[in-house]
Amino acid sequence: MELSIDQPCSCPSCGNCILSMQASRKKRKVLGLMMMINFLIYILVEVTRSYGQGKSNIIERHLPTNNFWKKFQLSEAFWNREQQHLDHVHNPLIVSALTTTNSTLQEVPQLSDWLNYTSRTDPCKADIGMTLQIKDYNSLPQRFKDFLLYMRCRSYRMLADAPAACSEPPFLLLAIKSMAPHFDRRQAIRQSWGRTGILDNRRVVTIFLLGNTDASDHFPDLSAMVKHEAQLHGDILQWDYRDTFFNLTLKEVLFLEWMGKHCSSAQYIFKGDDDVFVNTRHILKYLDKLSGTAARDLFIGDVITNAGPHRDKKLKYYIPESVFTGPYPPYAGGGGYLYSGNVGLRLRNVSRHISLYPIDDVYTGMCLKKLGLVPEKHKGFRTFNIEEKYRDSACAYQSLMLVHPRSPQEMIQIWEWISNPGLNC
Description:
The protein folds into 2 domains: 78-149, no CATH class; 158-419, Spore Coat Polysaccharide Biosynthesis Protein SpsA, Chain A, CATH 3.90.550.50. Helices cover 40% and strands 14% of the residues. It contains 15 helices and 12 strands. It has helices at residues 14-56, 78-90, 92-101, 111-115, 130-133, 142-149, 183-191, 223-233, 248-262, 280-288, 292-296, 341-351, 360-371, 395-398, 408-419, and strands at residues 158-160, 172-177, 197-199, 202-212, 236-242, 268-273, 277-278, 299-304, 331-340, 376-377, 381-382, 402-403. The strands form 2 sheets. Strands 1, 2, 3, 4, 5, 6, 8, 9 and 10 form a 9-stranded mixed beta sheet that branches. Helix 9 (248-262) crosses helix 13 (360-371). The longest helix is centred in the N-terminal third of the chain and has 43 residues, at 14-56. The chain is extended.
């Protein structure tokens, strides 16, 4: 049979077939177009990535637009200026950079004299030059004048030493700030929370830190009694300097030097006053749980933050603007704080580069800041006492580390309470 091209289709739905074929052709065209677009996108991504990888191998150098050291200016406050000088002495590159990159000597008043500053031949003699370095020196309270005249002296003769106190390395060294007349406080501590020996399988050693009484302060001569006490107990460190509130910082740095020489193996150190109660057992339990960085960098207490100098002359902690300006770093205040032996050695080293400040707790905070350490607040340090209704409760002291203040009689009583094996809280 011969087919004719012009022969009509016999399918009853011929029109639908034609439409279906046309739609199929359109789908194939769209699919092809999408495949081509995807291929182009792939090529573009690969080219961009290859370009980026090649560019990443190129070392780019970014040059600073400003000087690293900002324009140097001497502080008008005496202590700040002293510290600026110490910073220069221990890092002369700082001021060298400041004076060569940002300013000339003529642009900074008295900078040339300051850079060439040399301390007195004997820093332990009264520095009369202080009267010229502090503009309102003559109007300062006498305690400030006394402190400033000798603030550069750190070398004092020892009247009593205890070199054998750490013949066996202590786990916990209790370093207690005391004064010559406080015989009863020291004895109460020896009989209670500060008893030297083995406690809960840990070696605890107690030493007392004293200065000397001065006739100008109208103290009776107690030197013979203190000498006898030192010989009897072997736990007295006494230096021949005037024992005053502002010299507590001196007591701090002298102890750190002694510790570094005679007791550097102490694992932990509690530094506190002689009018506090310390729960030594609770401290030992706390320390036994520490390890690693927490143990190495330990420094805890009742930490004070966002504080600054008091400007009211009537206050005990008054600091004039001519002596110090600026905020205080975080510091542990009150009756005591606890830190590791490792931190103690670091404090000893950095304290040599920090000018003495008349408030010892703040000074320690300054040293910690220089070390890049932040003291940690611990709720177990109650430096402002506890609620009166709990003061006669033995159980109130079980979970605390320190309570301030407490009398010698209270120390002994509280220690007996918490040492009772039958105590059930």
